[in-house]
Amino acid sequence: MIKTTKLIAAFLVACFTCGASAQELKSEVFSLLNLDYPGLEKVKELHTQGNDAAAAEALLDYYKNRKGVQTPDINLKDIKISKQEQKWADDAMEHTFFVHKGYQPSFNYGEDINWQYWPVQDNELRWQLHRHKWFTPMGKAYRVSGDEKYAKEWAHQYIDWIKKNPLTKMNKEEYELVSAGEVKGAAENVRFAWRPLEVSNRLQDQTSQFTLFLPSPSFTPEFLTEFLTNYHKHAVHILNNYSDQGNHLLFEAQRMIYAGAFFPEYKDAMNWRKSGIDILNREVGIQVYEDGGQFELDPHYHLAAINIFCKALRMADVNGFRNEFPQAYMDCIESMIMFYMNICFPDYTNPCFSDAKLGTTKEEQKHYRDWAKLFPKNKQIQYFATNGKKGQKPENLSKGFLKSGFFTFRNSWDKDGNVMVVKAGPKAFWHCQPDNGTFELWFNGKNLFPDSGAYVYAGNAEVMKLRNWFRQTAVHNTLTLDNKNLEVTESETKLWQPEGNVQILVTENPSYEGLKHRRSIFFVDNTYYVIVDEAVGDAKGKVGIHYQLCEGDVQLDPKNLTATTNFEGDSNVKLQCFAPKGTSMDEEEGWRSIAYRQREERTAFAFNVDKDNDDAVRYITVIYPTENSAKAPKFDAKFKNQKFNENGLEVEVKVGGKKKTLKYKL
Ligand code: MG
Hints:
Layout: H1 2-18, H2 29-32, H3 41-48, H4 52-65, H5 83-93, H6 123-129, H7 135-145, H8 148-164, H9 172-175, H10 185-193, H11 196-213, H12 221-241, H13 246-262, H14 269-287, H15 299-319, H16 327-343, H17 361-374, H18 379-385, E1 399-401, E2 406-410, E3 418-423, E4 438-443, E5 446-447, H19 461-471, E6 479-481, E7 492-497, E8 502-512, E9 515-524, E10 528-536, E11 541-548, E12 554-557, E13 562-565, E14 572-578, E15 584-588, E16 591-595, E17 598-601, E18 604-611, E19 617-626, E20 635-639, E21 648-655, E22 658-665
Antiparallel strand pairs: 1-2, 2-3, 3-4, 4-5, 6-11, 7-8, 8-9, 9-10, 10-19, 11-18, 12-13, 13-14, 14-19, 15-18, 16-17, 20-21, 21-22
Helix pairs in contact: 3-4, 4-12, 5-7, 7-8, 7-11, 8-12, 11-12, 11-13, 13-14, 13-15, 15-16, 17-18
The structure holds magnesium ion.
C-alpha cells in the first residue's frame, strides 16, 4: 500500500512539475516484452495478476540488476566528460540544444520546448535536433556530478519529445525529401523527427542514456514503461522503413543490431539484431567495391562506413555474438582500411573530395588505434596506430584503386613526402561531386591543392545556393566546358603505371555531349607532375582547366600562364601551363571548406580558351612542388604528336634545361 501511495504521490508531483511531460504507466509494454525471458518471472507474475504498477517496479528492478548485457559505448567504471560535453549538458538545462557544429552558438528552443523551431532552413539543423546529441552528455554530467537535476531534466525532455512528436503514417519516400516541401505543421514535422536515420541515431544513443540514467530516482517505473514503449516504436519504424541504400542504410542496420542486442527482452529483439546483421553482411558486398572503396566515393563517408562496420563488431564482441559475422565481413573492413590509408596524406588527413570533411591528425590516429584492436595482425594498421613506433610501413608507395577511381602517386609515407591523390571514378551517389579528374597534392607538410569541400548539405534555396557553389565542377582541379558541371561522371582508366621514374595515369571522362576529357598525369622522377589535358569532340565553347591553391600568398603571371606560391614555410609550388594561342589565365572565386559552415577564401584560376572548331583543345601543365618557388627551375613543354591520338601521347618537357620525353601507347 505504501508503495502505491508513493507512486501516486510521485505521479502527482510529476504532473505538477512537468506539465506536458507527465509520465504515464504504459501497460502495453508488457505485450512487447517476452515475459518468459530469464529474470522477468516476477514481472510476468505481477502483470498476470493485473498489477501493472508493481510489475513496472519489478521490471525496473530487473534492469537495475541486469548483468551480461553491455554497450561498448559506455564504460561505467570510467566515465569522463569533456569540457565541451559539460557545456552541452549545462546549456541543455536551459533548452539551448547542441544540434550541429556548423551552427554555433547553439539556438534556444524555448522554455516550453518547440521541437519544430527551425531558425535556419538547413535540413540538417532540423533533422539533427532529433538526434538529441546533448542527452548522453547530460547522462555523463549526471554520473560525474551525481546531481539529480540532469536526470530530472532528461526525463522531462524525453517525455516532452514523445508528446510533441507523434509518429503518423507517412510514405517512405517522404522522409528523404531534400527540401521542406509544402506540408507544414505536424505532418511536416514527422519527416524530420522520424526520418529513419534520426530514429536509428536515437536507438543507438539511448542505449548509453539508459545505462547512465538508470539509477536515478527520476528514472521511475512509469518512465521505464514510456521509454521501452517509445524505443520499441523506434525499432519497428526502422524495420519497416530501412533506407534503400548508401550510408543511411548502414547506420540503420548497425543501430538495429544495437537495439536487438541491448534489449534482448523484447519479443522481436532477435529479429532486429538479425535484420541488422543480414543487411550489413549483404551491403559489404554491394557498397564496397572489390578494391575496398565505398561506392559513394566520398572519403568521409568511406571512413564512416568502416566505423559503422566496426561498431557492429564491437557490440557483437561485448555481448558474445561475433560468430554471426563471417570472415568475408572482416576481410572487407580490412580492405576498406587499406584503401583509406592509401588515399590519405602523411599527416593522416584525407582528401576533401565530394562531401568529405577534414579530420584532425589526432582524431584520425584514434581510428587506427580502434582498428588495430580489431585487426591485431595487420602490421600496417599498427604502424599508423602507433605513429610509426610499431608495426610496418606499407611496402607500396603509389597505389591505384581502379574500380573506385582513386589513384595515389606517392614518393614517401613521411611528412616530407610528395603525394598526389586523383579522383576519377564511376558515377556515384548524393554525396559525390561532379569532379572527375580532380586531385589534391601534398608536399613537404602541406596540402597545396586542397579540394573546395562541401560547406553545407541541403535546405531552402539560400542553403542550396551555397551547397551548389562548392559542388561545381569548376571549383575543382579539372576541366570544364563553359564552366558548366559535368554532364557525365563515368571515368575510364586507360592506363595506370605506378612504378618507375615516370609513373603514369591516363583517365578519360565523357564529360559533356560532344566533349570528352582525357587527362594524362606523369609523375616524373618522384619530384614533379606533368598533366596533359585534352578536350576532344565537336562541342564549341569556352574550355577551361581550373586550379585551386591553398590559402596564402599566390602570384599569378597571366602573360606566362604561371602561378607561384609564397607560402610561409618550405612547401610551395610553381605551376605553368602550355596552352593553345589565345589562352587566357583568369582568376576565379576560390573558397575552401574543411567543415560544415566553415570556409576560407583562397586563390583559384583557370586557363580558358575558346574552342570554335572540331579540333581538340590540348594543354600541358607542369606542376613543380618545391621548398622555395623563387628557386624553381624554368619550364618548357610541347606536344610531339600534333593532333589528339586516341591510342597514345608524346610530349617533350624541359625542366631546368633537362629535356624529357613523356609518352605512352595504349
Ligand atoms: Mg569537392
